[in-house]
Write a structure and sequence with these properties.
The protein is mainly β. 9% of the residues lie in helices and 43% in strands. The strands form 8 sheets. Strands 12, 13, 14, 15, 17, 18 and 19 form a 7-stranded antiparallel sheet that branches. Strands 1-3-8-5-6 form a 5-stranded mixed sheet. It has a 5-stranded mixed sheet with strand order 20-22-27-24-25, with no helix packed on it.
Amino acid sequence: LKMSCFWFYLPLHLLMATYLCHSVKAPTTSSQQSFETDLFNFYHSLILADGKETTVHLLKDIPKRYCFVLEEGRVLAPFSITVTPCDVPIEWSIFVYKSPPGLPGKATPDDHDTQEVSKSQKTSSMVSTIFSYKGNSVETYMGMSSHSALYLLEFLSTERDTHITVYLTTDTTSGHLYPELPMDPRIDVIGIGHTTVTLTWKHSPSVLQHGESIQYCLLVNEKHNYKSLCAAETAIRSSGMKLPPTLALSLSPYLLEPQQVMILSNSELSIINKVSSGEVRQVCMGTRNTYTVPNLSPSTQYYFDVFIVNLLTNASAAYTGTFARTLEAPEPKVTELKDGKVIHVVLDGKKQKSYSLQYQARHKKIHFTFQLCQGQIRVHITRNGKAVASENLSGLRYLSLKGKLLDTYLVQLRSTEESNSSVKVQASPHFHKPLFPLLPESLKIKSFSKLRTCRSVTIAWLGTQEESKYCVYRKRIEEDQIWRELQSADRCSGPESRHKSEKVLCKYFYDLNLQRAVTTETIKGLEAGTFYLFDVYLFGPSGIPVRYHSKVVKTRKKC
């Protein structure tokens, strides 16, 4: 509300003081002299609302000013001003204008002498600075106000555009807008694990008085502590995340953004924001003052801030933040690889996401073979501690490495998805008899649409220059089972996992000319308008099969 709205309600002495607030440029935090000399537009000075939190937007290097006065008739009364920076440090000050003696009422015989004093001397004697602060902490000033005084607040941001909140109250008897902090507002770390940190803090007096409308909310991030809730929200927004207006409001699921994940369990609400600087977690746990933060990363430093939030007013107060570093991950169990031996590694995407294998070379050339069975797995190989290979596995993969005798190779396998993953691994000298058969250029099965009938399907696949055994299997499936069958197929499993009735035939085939190394097969005795899953297994000299990519074909409905 502009100051001009109050001209008719002020007595003469405050009217003149208010005029000064309008017509004389208010002081900056670096110089009080400008208050006494420079004129400035009164629209730049606003009345600060009493008993209401006001959001103030600041432009860089441009001061913003607010005035306030007490109601007429109140001689002395306590008041408090709380300023909360929501981003960068700011400068703010409180100035008081007190009317000089003899200003109100009738003139006195000494008025003529008084008028001889320069206006600048009068103004200087009437204006004083009672409080100044520079920083980004939440600060509260408490004082006694007189009905003959006009107060002016000035705010300045020298770093960049920002915003703050200001709360003025002259009623200190009917409770507080902000929840109260305990005498000791520190957060204590009482337990640290590889992936967990347990915290506790003293209860807020507001919990005992207004338990139903008060709750604790925890903010976890990997960057730094925040001195206020609005500072935390501003930081998250500046990283590209859209955030509800307050943490209390974020309890409404419909306010979640696509980049947010909400988890509700045991009356706790967790919201995880995916931001460029890592995860930012918000957890509200009611009035419990002990909490174990789960699912953290090992050997990582986290910062923890607890806010006591009034759900009715959305006002909050911040405990003194803390930080803790989770313990280093335990050394993974290392399994020894032996020449020519195949190890089948199964990884649980949720519990055990990595597995380590060690191999000591007895020859200069080493041949690693990986057959991905399920899921997605990334392999990382080091030789004597130095990385020599790292990639995502797909199908069957051979890696040949050259080093020295007795080199130590460490093979680390990591699942890259939540579902189970598995892989077969073999290490051997380069000249060792190959474990898997010679593979064709492609493991795809092709079907010929024009050769489909109601009772038969014709398929084809590539062979190699090495005589090998090929076995064909079929399985009748429903249309809604296709996706699940293709996704869950274990590419390492052999025909022993199939029902005997699914076997169609086995045959031997090869061609020295790779251009002609193609074979076809017509599978008969099928039902019309039915989906069938076809698999081909290739057997090499070692007898270990390689499964071609499954193919689904539907027979014609009418012929």
